[in-house]
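Changelog entry: the High-affinity choline transport protein record was regenerated in this release. Current contents:
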Amino acid sequence: MADKKRARLSAGPRAIVGTYSAGADRSRSGEPPKANWPVVAVTMVITLLVAIWAAVASDNFDSVVGGITGWLTESLGWLYIATVAIALIFMIWIALSKAGAIRLGPDHSKPQYSLFSWSAMLFAAGIGIGVMFYSVAEPLAQYSTPPVGEGMTEQAYNEAIAWTLFHWGVSGWALYALMGLAFGYYAYRLNMPLAIRSALYPLIGKRVNGPIGDAVDVAALLGTIFGVAASLGIGVVQLNFGLNMVFGLPEGRGMQIALVALAVGVAAISAVSGVDKGIKRLSEANVYLATALLLFVLFTGRTGWLLNSVVKNMGDYLAWLPRWTFETFSYSQDPAATADWMANWTLFFWAWWVAWAPFVGLFLARISRGRTFRQFVIGTLCVPFIFVALWASILGNTALDRAVNSKDHDFLQTAVDSPERGFYTLLDGLPGGTIVVFIAILVGLLFFVTSADSGALVMAKFSSISQDPQQDGAPWMRLMWSGAVAVLTIAMLQVGGIATLQMATLIMGLPFMVVVYLIMVGLMRSIRMETAQVDSRAIALHSAISGRTLPSGNDLDWENRLDRTSTWPSEQTAHRYVVQIAKPALESVATALRARDYDATLLVADSKDTKVPQLDLSVIFGEDPVFRYQLYPVISTTPEFAVREGASDKLDNGKNYVRLEVFGMNGSLGFDVFGYTRAQLINNVLDLFDRHLEYLHMQQGFSGERDLTEFTSDAPEWGEDFGKQ
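Regenerated structure tokens:
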């Protein structure tokens, strides 16, 4: 085991103390990702078998899927409800606990995007073709057929928007936050592959690279495929009606197949021609179009009443959220009707959120490197939901106002019987209706094709093997998954339209729910280990303080300490310090550790951004976490006060200086040791070594995998996490 760790920790840098065998280079060499063939084969076979079954035996397929859905609703509906409730509670706990201070990346990492840019991207994540579809269809459906009681009553009227907000609210976003947190934590903090299986590493260790990990990835892929297919199916029927309304294009399977082909075609062009940035810009522009559309509806309608309704709807939602989160309607006086409502609404939505969780979670993780757990969870739960709430409340209340207050019963019946017609029919009744509908079609079409493209990108990522979290799957894999989703969507629409897609999503979401629980348990164990690291610092502090005092009882030379804090070294000065002071000091520590039978190694390696070498002292403890003391040179801007206060005699150059920061396995510890004497530096190493030993002692009672450093390379480069604001 030690030899394997040594190979992992030391592939490239030169050993000064200790020996090692060169291992695999995990330095993101740019090698193309490889297909994970077991995952690809199993997922593709299941997807195609389902599609073929639906195409050649539609009645039998519809009967079987309907029967399974009925059984799931009756027997396992509680599991869907409990899973989402537990995920929401778990994420709130993370945000409020001291675990909220952990970063999605090394301890020294800074957010890649400003707070405004990050919030804008989260805002955009809340928009999609599904929100457009259900913002009108669901409030009218809930008013017409509520889960309990009579429809078209004052109670149904009051609850209609609140139910819509519940199904699109923080409960579902908690699932996205959970997946995004798992992706970001294991990939950016622990350097593991950006894959679902990485989240299981604390539970089963290296077995994630075997059949268990493959099974998890298959479950995630199947959920994503059916979730994307459901979204494409909903988008197809809605866009088909809009195109018929504006351009007179026929409604039917032929046109729907053409729209699916369009989405696949865009994904194919994106994959093979490298126009991903163009697709991204279209998606960003679409956010502005959608916002403009929302504001148009607000200001051409009963603006004051709509804003009053938004506030009321939010209050109702927040008041009823705790009760509805756990609502299974087990005391319903009409169990059959309630079960049917649950299958069509809450259970379908929860399964849909579960299916999309890996997809959206990956996006959230990629834009959130450097954020703390607390920032990530609060931002993910709140920012997208604000837009969803505004959209559903403004559009939904406009629809209810027309159906109820204006007594447009034909509109109500049309939207309930054919939900895909409700959105465009509502817009057609506004001033400039045809133009508004055309803009809405454009918005929906862009959401439609970008969802297909993004879905293919994520599925290719999940079915690839790559050590680089930023590396996407091969273009041919994106083409393959686009085609598979297209075939599945068309087959499902042929059987029974949106209803069949809903039932299939409900079924396929079940296996991944098991993975959701495993991810929460894995994160709990990881958080426990992170917390133990923090606690070990306080316990080891007494030893550190004692080591700072000379035998005579006098403090170390305070004037030398003051000189050190007022010096801003150049690369040449820092290089001289590393060679003359730091390197001999760490050599002495490594030699002494080896003399006491510790498996210690000291490496020296070139640095990416400076000529100052880095030193990497590591000690391996078998199956337990590795101790690392890495001196890493960080180029920093000289503070203004250094020049202003007349400290120029301490400056080697006026613009930048070098900090020799101490790094552990999780990144920078935040302090600079330049100017330490040999004895001070040795004491600092021993302080941190004592802390690590205390941490190992605290870990002894932990179950599962205790060492999460499997994918950490030797003398890692940390430069990408500096200088990002």
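The CA atoms of residues 241 and 421 lie 6 Å apart.
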